[in-house]
Write a structure and sequence with these properties.
This protein is of the alpha+beta class. Helices cover 58% and strands 14% of the residues. The protein is built from four helices and three strands. It has helices at residues 4-7, 14-21, 25-34, 50-68; strands spanning 11-12, 40-42, 45-49. Strands 1-3-2 form a three-stranded antiparallel beta sheet. Strand 2 and strand 3 form a beta hairpin.
């Protein structure tokens, strides 16, 4: 039996994604429109891949770290 991560990605709700990212739902909507995070329309709902949301946090932390460094 294959691990779940290789079979099907875990989708989470807008509310769960916003909580993980530490942002509000309106900010999540804005970030989705701007392409910062990718939403997937499933039927009439928008869902997010949990692993992509977690990777977004890492990328943002890396960008913020680079922004505050001084040489």
């Amino acid at each position: 039996q294959e691990p779940k991560s290789k079979a099907e990605p875990e989708f989470i709700t807008r509310k769960e994604a916003a909580k993980i990212l530490g942002i509000t739902l309106p900010t999540l909507s804005d970030w989705t429109k701007r392409g910062i995070v990718k939403g997937y329309r499933i039927a009439s709902r928008v869902r997010f891949k949990k692993d992509e949301i977690q990777n977004s946090i890492i990328q943002m932390q890396t960008m913020n770290y680079g922004r505050h460094r001084r040489f």
